[in-house]
Amino acid sequence: MINPFAPKIYTRSGITKENIFSNKKVLHIGCGSSKLRGALGMDILKLPGVDLVHNLDETPWPVEDSSVDLVFAHSVVEHLSDIVSFTDEVWRVLKPGGRVIITVPYFRSVDSFTDITHKHFFTSKSFDYFIKNSGQLSEYTYTEKTFRKIGFWYGWPHESKNPLVFMFKKFIQNHRRFYDQYLSLLFPMRILIWELEVDK
Questions:
Q1: What is the pLDDT of residue 179?
Q2: Which CATH superfamily is domain 6-159+189-198 in?
């Protein structure tokens, strides 16, 4: 069984403050001043903790090919101009077997529309275009650089201690299309999280 990294980063008390990847090279893109401990931080602004000042819309990024074990993209992809270029760059910098964790606002969430710099909106199937053998959407050839899905979560990647929330999240996880199309109108989640492994 493959163990995802997302639940180790997104702890029950918030994003981890510990260096949990001491033997891995982690690239935290769009890190701002909240970089993961032990990661290399890249952002468009020179803020405390930013190691590489770079506009993510400008490719290639100043990172070597196949040099990174994990790319962490928390609340940044929705700001970018070109999602295909983003996934191509992630694919390029990841080592074989490397992973990317992508967190974005859910398209029904008020947070998606509050920030006027957001350029994209996401459902549970938005990254299926880049996930190998994920169905009809993966047949579109936007790029030949593909990924394998390790995990997908509506909201924080932990089982809730509240039995009603636990059952609700389990239901929508198993009926994503129904939730995206109908049920999310009444009960919108705030974020979506993907963990993908590079297909090299």
A1: 98
A2: Vaccinia Virus protein VP39 (3.40.50.150)
